């Protein structure tokens, strides 16, 4: 599995927003053992001092940065933010979010495909935050995306995998495209479930940042992602409707 030529050791990608303090963010990244963190350029650029301390902290983590266009609601905004991110972080990677609806933060898939086409043509390596729609996925691949990131559930809800059927179909349809479940993960068991479906990685933020003990939760997620992957590779049994004794009885016990 590689993401535009980069093979991370950890299949967990972590967001960097909403932590109680920079120190807790740092401890969480270390506890998770992640190689990739995502950073919102718009959110951080708006902070006092242009977020310089924040950038310095992120750089000091020694991990690969996946800048994102969180908070962008139009193609123009997302493209401009991506161009700024490339300047700031010196990376062609961009997690592309074009939000289409305020209540669910659902991606505007039409704008997403348009923005992806523009950015891929400009040499960006695009990680599109999308719904699990197969047709949208096809269009994004045609646009030049070599990674797809369907949502598990709306951002920040912690609901887990809203549509396992759709996620399974996407996996089956794109066996060779790296797939990452992004957003809506609330518990380590949700992350494990995504990995058991054969997803290549999981990206999450709120579930760790808002946990009572973010660093401990980050460690729990790291283990769940590893366990889910291991289970997928081990080849899970097929579920069945009829009971089947797991300890077949040979002969009869002689009583009395
Ligand atoms: C940080 C980031 O990129 C989020 O937009 C992402 O989608 C994670 O969502 P959760 O906060 O629901 O994990």
Automatic annotation (TrEMBL):
Q: Give Gene Ontology CC terms.
A: cytoplasm
What molecular function terms (GO) are annotated for this protein? thiazole synthase activity
> Can you name the source organism?
Bosea lupini
Task: Kindly state which reaction or reactions the protein catalyses.
Answer: [ThiS sulfur-carrier protein]-C-terminal-Gly-aminoethanethioate + 2-iminoacetate + 1-deoxy-D-xylulose 5-phosphate = [ThiS sulfur-carrier protein]-C-terminal Gly-Gly + 2-[(2R,5Z)-2-carboxy-4-methylthiazol-5(2H)-ylidene]ethyl phosphate + 2 H2O + H(+)
Biological role stated in the UniProt entry: Catalyzes the rearrangement of 1-deoxy-D-xylulose 5-phosphate (DXP) to produce the thiazole phosphate moiety of thiamine. Sulfur is provided by the thiocarboxylate moiety of the carrier protein ThiS. In vitro, sulfur can be provided by H(2)S.
Q: SUPFAM superfamilies per the record?
A: ThiG-like
**Top-level class of the enzyme under EC nomenclature:** transferase
Which Pfam families does the record match to this protein?
ThiG
Which PANTHER family did the record assign? THIAZOLE SYNTHASE
Signal sequence residues? none
Q: In which pathway does it act?
A: Cofactor biosynthesis; thiamine diphosphate biosynthesis
> Could you tell me which HAMAP family the record lists for this protein?
ThiG
Q: Which residues form the active site?
A: 95 (schiff-base intermediate with dxp)
Predominant location of this chain? cytoplasm
Provide the family line: Belongs to the ThiG family.
Q: Does the keyword Cytoplasm apply?
A: yes
Q: Which gene encodes it?
A: thiG
Query: GO annotations under biological process?
Result: thiamine diphosphate biosynthetic process
Report domain Thiazole synthase ThiG positions.
Answer: 5-248
* EC number from the UniProt entry: 2.8.1.10
InterPro entries assigned = Aldolase_TIM, Thiazole_synthase_ThiG, ThiG
Location in the cell reads:
Cytoplasm
Gene3D superfamilies, per database record: Aldolase class I (3.20.20.70)
Superkingdom of this protein's organism: Bacteria
Question: Could you tell me the keywords of this UniProt record?
Answer: Cytoplasm, Schiff base, Thiamine biosynthesis, Transferase
Q: Protein name, please?
A: Thiazole synthase
């Amino acid at each position: 599995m590689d993401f535009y030529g980069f093979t991370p050791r950890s299949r967990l990608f972590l967001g960097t927003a909403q932590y109680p303090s920079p120190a807790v963010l740092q401890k969480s990244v270390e506890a998770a053992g992640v190689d990739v963190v995502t950073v919102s350029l718009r959110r951080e650029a708006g902070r006092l001092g242009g977020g310089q301390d924040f950038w310095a902290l992120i750089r000091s983590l020694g991990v690969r940065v996946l800048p994102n266009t969180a908070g962008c609601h139009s193609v123009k905004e997302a493209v401009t933010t991506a161009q700024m991110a490339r300047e700031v972080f010196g990376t062609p990677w961009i997690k592309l979010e074009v939000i289409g609806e305020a209540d669910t933060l659902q991606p505007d898939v039409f704008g997403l495909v348009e923005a992806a086409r523009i950015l891929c043509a400009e040499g960006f390596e695009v990680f599109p935050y999308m719904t699990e729609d197969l047709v949208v996925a096809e269009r994004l691949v045609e646009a030049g995306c070599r990674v797809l990131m369907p949502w598990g559930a709306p951002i920040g809800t912690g609901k887990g995998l809203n549509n396992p059927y759709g996620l399974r179909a996407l996996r089956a349809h794109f066996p060779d495209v790296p797939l990452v479940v992004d957003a809506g993960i609330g518990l380590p068991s949700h992350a494990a479930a995504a990995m058991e479906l054969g997803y290549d990685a999981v990206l999450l933020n709120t579930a760790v940042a808002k946990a009572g003990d973010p660093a401990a939760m980050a460690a729990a997620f790291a283990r769940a992602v590893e366990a889910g992957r291991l289970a997928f590779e081990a080849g899970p049994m097929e579920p069945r409707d009829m009971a089947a004794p797991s300890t077949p009885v040979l002969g009869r016990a002689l009583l009395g």
